[in-house]
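Input.
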Amino acid sequence: MVDTLVTNGTVVTQNDAREVLQDGTVAIHDGEIVAVGPTAEVTDRYDADEVVDASDHLVLPGLINAHTHVSDILFRGCWGDDRTLFDWLYNVKRPGVAAMDADDHRVAAELYCLEAIKSGMTTFVENDAEMTWEEWDEIETKLDTYDRSGIRSVYARGFMDQPVDDGYRSMVAEFTTKEPGVEHPDPENYVVETEAGLDEVASLIEQYHGTAEGRREIWIAPVVVEGMTKEGLQKSYALAERHDVMTTTHVSESQLQEQGRALSSVEYLSNIDYLGEHALLAHCIHISERDARILAATDTRVSHNLIANLFLGSGLAPLDALRNHGVTTCVSTDNASCSDTVNLLKDAQYATLTHRGANADSGVVSTQAALDMVTRDAARAMRKGDALGSLETGKRADVILLDADRPHMTPVRDAVSAVIHQAQGHEVDTVICDGDIVMRDGVVTTLDESSILQRARETATAVIERSGLDSLADHDR
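Output.
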C-alpha cells in the first residue's frame, strides 16, 4: 500500500537516460517516490489510498526556480519600461519594497506562491536583497506564508556590509534625481556591520532551516560584489560551508559593475576563495571565457535570468560558453516586476530560442537542455540533485501534471518538445509537493485564490501610492 499513484500519464522522468514513459505511473509514499514505471507493472505491485488519473497529461518533476525576488510582484507593470537596471532598482523596486509593512509582504508572498503553484513550480529560492535589518516581523510573515503554501522555499537573507561612501551616494543620486515624486530610502538602511549581519543570518538558519516539515532552507545572500567587503564575502562562504547551505549573490548584471575593476568580478571572487559548490551566482552576463573556466573549475553554479535581463536591456549571458565549459547553469525568473510573470516554462522556452537566434545556431541550446535547466540542473545548482529535479525512486515526490488535451498541445509527438515549445504554463492542473497535493484540477488547495487576488489589487494600489510610485504614471511613454 502506498499513499498515491499517479497513473496512465506520459511520464517525463528527467532521469539520467531522460526516459519518457508513454503509459507510466509514479508511486508515492511518505513524501517519497517509491516506483516509476509502466502503469500495468506499477499498479500490479501497489494499491494506493488515492489514485490520480493522468490520462491525456504529461507528468513531470516539479519546476525549480533557483533565483527570484518575491515582494516586488506587487509592482509589475509599474512604469518600469525603458529603464536600465539601476534606474529600475533605485526608482521602482527599492522605493516600493521600502514602503511595505508585514501585511503587505504577506499578500505579496501569497500572490507569488499562488502563481508559482499554478505554473508548476514546487521549489523557489528567494534572494531577499531589499529587506532592511530591522524587519524581523516581515521575514517571519513571509516564512509563515511559504509554509502554508505547501511548496519548498529557500529564504536567502540579503547581506551588505560595505559602508556607504560619497561615491556610492553620488551614483544613487544621479539615478534618483530623475524621479522627485518617489520616496527614495536611504542607502544606509541596507548596510550592516559584518559580524552583526553574519550573526543574524546564523540565527535565522538555527531557528528556521529544515522547518516546514523539511521544505524550508535558509541561505546567506551577499547582495552584490561591490556592496560587500572582502571579509564579508569570505565569511559568508564560510558560514554556508559550516551550516551546509548555499550562498548566493548577484554578479556582473550590469556593465557598470565591471567598469574600473582591475580583475573581473568572477576572478576577484575566485582569488578571495568565495567560489565553490556552496556558491550560486545570479546573472553573470558580462563575463569572459576565462571567467567561465574559473566557474567550471571551482564547481560554482550560475542562475541565468534571461527575461529580466532582456527587459532591462542588461545584456545576454554567454549561456553556451557556460554550458560548454561544464558550469551547472539553471534558468530562473528573477524579479516579477521586470519579467512580469512567475512562469518557468516561459523562461525555459525563451532560453532556448533567444540563444539560438543570438548565436545563429539552432542547436546551441537544445530543447532538452531547456527542460533540464528548470528541473535537474536547477536542483544541482542548489545542491539538491540527490533529492529533486527528476522522477526517480528515492527522490522526493514533487510531481506536476500538464493537461495535454488542449488545442495548442495537439498533437504531442515529442513530450519534451511539447513542454518547452507548446505549453504556456497554464496547462498545469495538478501539483504534488513532498507527496501532498497542493493543487488539484486547477484549484490550489492551500491558498484562497479569490481572496488573494482581491487583496493583492488593493495592497498594490496602497503601496504604490504610499511610496510615490504613482508619480511615475505622469511620464510620457
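The chain has a mean pLDDT of 96.
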